[in-house]
Design brief:
With 87 residues, the protein is mostly helical. The chain contains 5 helices and no strands. Helix content is 61%, strand content 0%. Helix 3 runs antiparallel to helix 5.
Length: 87
């Protein structure tokens, strides 16, 4: 998992913002709605999950188990594969 987190940092999919105050964690719990959310929400979600894991070990594992982390990664991949050329 450490390598995946490192790659997300390198891809700038972990960003500085007030992740602990972001309401998207509850809104997209279990990955709900992330497939069609703005790609920025997927970046915020990966950030929130990774940063929260620093304070509460096991957050990444829980987000993997409930589908949130994979939904965020799927959204990032879709943006990269199909949408980024529009920018």
């Amino acid at each position: 998992m450490d390598q995946a987190v490192e790659i997300l940092y390198e891809l700038q999919a972990v960003i500085p913002f007030e992740w602990s105050k972001w309401d998207g964690v509850e809104r997209h719990l279990g990955g709900a709605g992330l497939d069609h959310a703005p790609v920025a929400d997927a970046v915020r979600m990966t950030t929130a999950i990774i940063r929260a894991d620093r304070f509460c070990e096991g957050t990444i594992a829980a987000a993997l188990d409930d589908g949130t982390f994979l939904a965020a990664l799927r959204r990032l991949w879709h943006w990269y594969d199909a949408e980024r050329h529009h920018f």
